[in-house]
Amino acid sequence: MHLIASHIKPWRESSDEERLAAGNGLLLTPSIDHLFDRGLITFADDGEVHVSPVAAADDSLSKMGVNPPIFSGKFNSDQKHFLDYHRSQIFLKSAA
Q1: Does a structural domain hold residue 47?
Q2: Between residues 58 and 74, which one has the greater pLDDT?
Q3: How many domains does the chain have?
Q4: How far apart are CA 34 and CA 95, in angstroms?
Q5: Where would I find the H helices in the chain?
């Protein structure tokens, strides 16, 4: 399986310190990384995958293996900090 080192808070929006922070990283498959970077999915602190309403009606998610409920495992406190940013600033909460 091929994995990509993905930043939780995008590189372009991160300070130099945040860019190098271990807590700002996840190992994701390329398809999950694509969805995560575009705000079509995010992760709750307990590891549950949340699908954006923008993507929920699209059957391509199930073709990519995204069939909620999915749990990735729990995150550490540093990752939770960056995931909070992702949920509030990157994740697409509505189609409007």
Answers
A1: yes
A2: 74
A3: 1
A4: 18
A5: 16-20, 30-37, 53-56, 60-63, 77-85
